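ok so heres the complex, two chains, lmk if somethin looks off
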Amino acid sequence: MSVGEWWFPSHLTEMTREECLELVASLRVGRVAYADDEGPVVLPVNHVLDGESVLFRVSPNSEFAKHLGDGQPASFQVDDFEDFNMSGWSVLIRGTTQLVAEDEPHADANPWAEGDRTLNVRIVPTSVSGRRLLPA
Amino acid sequence: MSVGEWWFPSHLTEMTREECLELVASLRVGRVAYADDEGPVVLPVNHVLDGESVLFRVSPNSEFAKHLGDGQPASFQVDDFEDFNMSGWSVLIRGTTQLVAEDEPHADANPWAEGDRTLNVRIVPTSVSGRRLLPA
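and the predicted structre for the whole thing:
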């Protein structure tokens, strides 16, 4: 039995950039993706939105830190889905990463997790996109 | 005021492989990361766990499909966090992707979203890791 035989799929609609950024700002946890030699990695972070860029903090000694901050490409993703009616939304910010200098005024993301997360990283967007999944 | 001055951070503990896979199996939505020429991309999918590999369906005409299925590296990620006590967990499966042949018996992930998602993709894990964030 194929999927289409027993159930109506949910509809996809594109969100505006403004809507995407509002949703990013509304959440306290998102996900950062970067690539190392073996491929893409996705890890959760506590973030803040600063204008149109996303700020988060990592440990300077982490694997994470080795692959961020020097113009490397990275993505930031947030989403929220509901099982009961198969609906939700997701936002993807693609961009490049920069380290935030300590003396540079910046919004501060407070990491929930323990550890020496002193390195402030900014993802500067090259694209912002998002979609809603609406119940059938 | 720095973060450490006003709040106790949550503790991080590693999860076992079994615990990670149980959590992956318990959810109906996860995220797949792949890399294109511009860097990493993260997109939500409906998935199923089949043994230790993750199965999901994509449209054969999608950007997604171009970067999956031929041994390319990809990651699968799930997480769940609670704002009120700054706790949660996340799991990351790193691996390589294979297309699932139509005549090969396989678990079937039912995509919630509309569209011709006929391409069945498997991520075969090279590593499975996860962490819990426990309230302070």
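quick notes: The radius of gyration of chain A is 17 Å. thats all i got rn
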